[in-house]
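Q: Structure tokens for this one, please.
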Amino acid sequence: MQIDSSIFKAYDIRGVVDKTLTFEAARAVGQALGSLAREKNISTLCVGRDGRLSGPKLSEALIEGITDMGVNVKSIGMTPTPVLYFATFLTETGSGVAVTGSHNPPEYNGLKMMMGKDTLYGDGIQDLRHRIEAGITVSEQKGTVEEIDVVTPYLKKITDDVKLARPIKVAIDCGNGVTGPIAMELFKRLGCEVTPLYTEIDGHFPNHHPDPSKPANLKDLIETVKNTDVELGLAFDGDGDRLGVVTKSGQIIYPDRQIMLFAADILKHNPGAPIIYDVKCTRRLVPWIKEHGGVPTICRTGHSLVKAKLKETQAPFAGEMSGHLFFNDKRWPGFDDGLYAGARILEILSRCPNPSEVLEALPTAVNTPELHIEMAEGENKRFVEKLQKQLHFDDATDVITIDGIRVEWNDGFALARSSNTTPVVVLRLEGDTPEALERIKTRFAEALKQVDPNVKLPF
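A: Here is the predicted structure, written as tokens:
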């Protein structure tokens, strides 16, 4: 069977429903996953879906494909992606699929996949494509489908684990994604007074896009926190695996500063442990982690890659700039979960009379948002390879090339890396002061122009 190869991305399967991601394609992927499961002697996969309009039919097609191969399915219904991850631990299958478009526009949907406790990414996803193209022989005996409730034990697991020192007044913005009802229930059970924004699930996303990494999507939450008596604002993306945080003054606490708060708390109980962060994070993390008794460990960007690094190092915590936060400290089983991260941040801040003051006191720097240089398909990877080979920085304190090129100076850094999901070169620059940032911009721009004088820089 031939299906659109563009849906097989670096970290997931994703496409426009009925165009690149068809129901036939979803069934074929289900068969490929069933084939892989049988090879690994895995008899059961968990399947869940987010709140997108295409979710019911896509998950039905996926389940048909899985059961075509004689593999059983435990269907958990419409739930956040982290609840699917939790289901794979609860059922001890270590394997499952979340039908989710994450934070993509409404016409998109996709699949995030685990097999044998490992996230499928990179070559593992391409292997599914090769299986489909080679042709799959279905089983004579169909697998079974069982509907199970995972939300009840998921909420119990969190509320048994997380205890707030005092009630907190919190606003939550779910962007009409799938987290709404569960988030409301969770934070009320934790003892919070909750002001809800867009907690009704609506696959049209009528109010704003469910992506808390973009400041424009946090405007309503910021206004609510500033103009009511709530102490803090939390925002979740479309499928619930990422967290956004807003303070009383309207400041956005980006994930690299959230990592600082979590690292300090976790290292009290895990001295000397590694704390993982991705190449896009602030350089202020390194001294912070060291001061709190940890080992700063830099990692390539991408939630699947961070999860693999977490497994390799057995670190108690990992986080990346996009908002994926991984707790692996014996309290939680190591997967990214925006709702659980929200509960943990409230646990820490409930010990303080002024949560916003604590958050705003975290070290910060002057930095750019994530900037993009758009290029033709494949050209972004070639450009970054040239940067790695041709650029030399005699004035730098370090040059890190695990994911693109990150040049460190005493007062800032500059990063250029190839996106694994779109044909762009991702840039991020930081300085300790505005003057340092301007100098680093000029220095890095000159270097990029050496490799390609015609490159159009977004700064």
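A few notes: DSSP finds 14 helices and 21 strands in the chain. The chain has a mean pLDDT of 97.
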